[in-house]
Write a structure and sequence with these properties.
The chain is mostly helical. The protein is built from four helices and no strands.
Length: 95
């Protein structure tokens, strides 16, 4: 036991290096995510506001599209009708 203690005392730097290496290699440390020092830091992550399910814009868009569907003026359905008519016209021209 005294020989081990005497060997450690003679080789302080080497024994500390071996012990430090063993501690580093055999201990698991969970990596912590990077956190800036303040929310106003230049590299702080940008927080984006989450939209609510029933926002005023969604209600307005739904109201306008339902009104246009009732009147037959919905541009999305008109677009599909015109695309179909052009497709049929080009197919008739090819014949």
């Amino acid at each position: 036991m005294f020989r081990i203690a005497r060997g450690l005392m003679r080789h302080k730097v080497g024994s500390v290096a071996v012990i430090a290496f063993a501690v580093v290699m055999f201990t698991r440390s969970e990596e912590k995510p990077y956190a800036p020092s303040s929310p106003w830091a230049a590299d702080a992550p940008v927080q984006v506001a989450q939209a609510q399910d029933d926002s005023m814009v969604d209600k307005a868009v739904d109201g306008v599209t339902s009104y246009l569907d009732e009147k037959g003026l919905n541009p999305l359905s008109a677009k599909q009708e015109h695309a179909d008519s052009w497709t049929s016209a080009t197919s008739a021209f090819d014949r």
